[in-house]
Amino acid sequence: NVVGSKAAGLAELLRIAGIRVPPAFIITTRAFDLLLASHPGTLSEIAELERLTDPDQIRQCALAIQQAVLAAPIPSMLRGLVVAAYKAFSAELGEEDALVSVRSSADKEDLDGASFAGQYATVLNVRGVRGLLRATRHVWASTFSPDAIFYARANHPGAQPAKMAIIVQQMVQPKVAGTVFSVDLETGAPLISINAVYGLGDSLVGGRNTPDIILVDPISLAIVKRRLGSKTITETYDPARKRTVRSRTAQADAQSFTLSPAEARELARQAIAIAAAHPRASSLRGVDLEFAID
Over the stretch 121-174, which tens digit does the pLDDT of each residue have? Predict the structure, then answer.
């Protein structure tokens, strides 16, 4: 699996009518292998990590590998390929340097029974070659975060170390973003559960914001329940400062729902369409999606 599980899932979405996926290109796991192969010392540290069993030693070794990956020069051939792909991608979007998100797509990510949610890095609002290469190193290094290592050992004991592909995807500037699950996360009921916040969804998945929660019946598409979240902050991209900024949500917005009933029903309809076409799910079981409304 040279593109990783998340990238493969996005490719599956492209085949479903009516589902919009922002364009992207993939830095495959072969690039990750090439980076590590160019630094034999880091490979030796990875082999040592696999032999360790003491949690403190595992953490210290994983952190050392992370720092080594962050500091490792990218081989010139690999650097040239990444830069060429980014420039070609930017040209397709009609830009000199496209604004992108740089997302993890490990070969063991988003699997049944082991989502690795939040274990690997994503870098938002990246523009330019220097920023892209810096973000790419950051995502590669997250393969060896102690939390990811411990999670992998707990859920896939004895498995080979993860290999990291990277999704470089056009950055969406959403007014509302969030997640869609196939079940009510609190009760386990077979209802589509939508969690939504204003601005970038990273404040939700990073645990910095309390979202609106909307439950939708998957058969009738009726709204079963709506619970207003506090949504105290809104994260957006500031083009003048060229970075993500966090602001306090206006009181009127915080006291209103992020999604209209029609928007919630449309998200539920898309979740049903995705589940029906998903190779690992013939029903709504197992669907876990992220959405953005621009």
Answer: 999 999 999 999 999 999 999 999 999 899 888 877 666 778 999 999 999 999
Residues β-bridged to residue 246: 235
Q: Which ranges constitute the DSSP H helices of the chain?
A: 4-14, 29-37, 40-51, 55-71, 76-92, 129-142, 146-155, 202-205, 251-254, 261-277
Question: What is residue 111's DSSP assignment?
Answer: B
Residue located via tokens 């589902």: 19
> What is this structure's pTM?
0.87
Q: Is 186 left (phi over 0), alpha (psi -120 to 50) or beta?
A: alpha
CA atoms within 13 A of residue 81's CA, in its CB half-sphere: 15
CB 12 within 8 A of CB 267: no
Phi, psi dihedrals of residue 30, rounded to the nearest 5°: -65, -35
Instruction: Answer left, alpha or beta for residue 274, where phi above 0 means left and psi between -120 and 50 means alpha.
Output: alpha
Distance CA(219)–CA(242), nearest Å, equals: 44
